[in-house]
Amino acid sequence: MPRRTLAMIVAIGSIAVAAPIAQAAPNTHQLKLTIKDATISSQGDRPGNQQTTAGLVFGKPLGHAIESITDKVTTATSSTITFAGTITIYTTHGVINGTIEIKIKPASNGGATGTGSGEITGGTDDYTGAHGSFTFTGAESANSTVFVSHLTGTASY
C-alpha cells in the first residue's frame, strides 16, 4: 500500500475517532436561583383555570435571566391550590424549558406560601439537551403582587 494512501487512511481514522471525543458528556451544574414572579393573567383558582406569570431570575449558574410560567389549577381546597404547567427561562446563552408543579397555601392576611418541584426537559443554544430537576419554596407578602421563590436542584447541559 503506498505511503500516501496509508497516511490518508490514518488521517481519516483520526478524525473519526476524535469526533466522539469532541462531543463530551454534558456537565452537571448546581442550581441556586431566586425567582421574583408576578401574575400576568389569571382565570381564578378553580380546577382547570389557567394563569400566566413572569419574572426575574438570578443566581448560579445562570446569572440574570427572565422567566415565564403557564399553568392550570389541578386541585383547589380551602387550604391549598395546586398548579401544573411549564416554565421557560430566557438567558443570554439560550432558553431552558421545563415542567413545574406548585402548591400554594393562601394566608389569612392576604399573603401566601408555596412549595414546588419541576423537571428540566430541554433547551436551546448552550442548553440544547438540558435535563435535570429542582425544588423550591417561596412566599408572597400581604399587599404584594410578587411571589419570591428560592430554587435548588441540578441541571446537565
Describe the structure.
The chain has 157 residues and is mostly beta strands. It has one helix at residues 3-22; strands at residues 28-42, 50-60, 63-76, 81-91, 94-106, 112-123, 131-140, 146-156. The chain has an 8-stranded antiparallel β-barrel. The longest helix has 20 residues, at 3-22. The radius of gyration is 22 Å and the shape is elongated.
Quaternary structure state of the chains depicted: single chain
Distance between the termini: 45 Å
> How can the largest sheet be summarized?
8 strands, antiparallel, barrel
Strand content: over 45%
Q: What is the topology, as strand order, of the major beta sheet?
A: 1-2-3-4-5-6-7-8
Low-confidence stretches: 4-21
**Overall strand count:** 8
Shape: elongated
Over the alpha carbons, how many angstroms does the gyration radius reach?
Answer: 22 Å
Q: Kindly state the mean pLDDT as a whole number?
A: 89
- What is the share of helical residues? 10-25%
Structural class: mainly beta
User: What is the number of helical segments per DSSP (H or I, 4+ residues)?
Assistant: 1
H and E string: HEEEEEEEE
